[in-house]
Amino acid sequence: MSKRESYEAKTEALLQPIAEKNGVEIYDVEYVKEGSDYYLRAYIDKPEGVNIIDCENVSRALSDALDKEDFIPDAYILEVSSPGLGRTLKKDKHLAKSIGEEVEIKLFKAIDKCKEFSGVLESFDADTIVIKEGENLRTFERSAIALIRLALDF
Questions:
Q1: Coil, helix or strand for 104?
Q2: Which whole number is the average pLDDT over 133-143?
Q3: Please, where are the H alpha helices in 47-102?
Q4: Are 27 and 87 in contact, with CB atoms under 8 Å apart?
Q5: Pair 12, 29: CB distance under 8 Å
Q6: What's the pLDDT score for residue 84?
Q7: pLDDT band at 77 (very low <50, low <70, confident <90, very high)
Q8: Domain 3-81 CATH superfamily
């Protein structure tokens, strides 16, 4: 397990009881470096959507728990927020909740000179993602997908 994965897993374990106490679910946790700064981001959600008070309450409790455990030696910025409307679908649980929803897929390498596709998420398994484009089904290898997220429809 990499340092990043370890930090994310430990943070998620600390966050679980905090999320339950605050009536939210953990959508994702990520530890990333952007420029010269490290960010520890916790994305929370609930059916009616999270608000600023939810984020503030979870952030304060998580910050205290992280300070107590002190397992990340680097200086980092803690952010707690909603995953947003165009949320990235990283995990199987995200994909399962999004069956029947419009998604956008970006590939590492072009297929038929195209790297971006959109359609309704039909199904997925450990190796593939299937979307419906109009009347056609298109299957993508998960290893070929750089990003999959909910489509924003304005």
A1: strand
A2: 94
A3: 52-69, 92-97
A4: yes
A5: yes
A6: 87
A7: very high
A8: RimP-like superfamily, N-terminal (3.30.300.70)
On whether the CB atoms of residues 78 and 40 are closer than 8 A, the answer is: yes
Q: What is the pLDDT of residues 24-70, one digit of tens each?
A: 999 999 999 999 999 999 999 999 999 999 999 999 999 999 999 99
Strand, coil or helix: 44: strand
Question: Does the pTM of the predicted model rise above 0.85?
Answer: no
The CATH number of the domain covering residues in 92-150: 2.30.30.100
Provide the pLDDT for residue 154: 65
DSSP characters over 112-145: TTEEEEEEEEEEE-SSEEEEEETTEEEEEEGGGE
| Inter-residue contact 121 to 149 (CB < 8 Å) | no
Tell me the C-alpha distance between 30 and 37, whole Å: 14
Please answer whether residues 62 and 18 qualify as being in contact, where contact means their C-beta atoms are separated by less than 8 angstroms.
yes
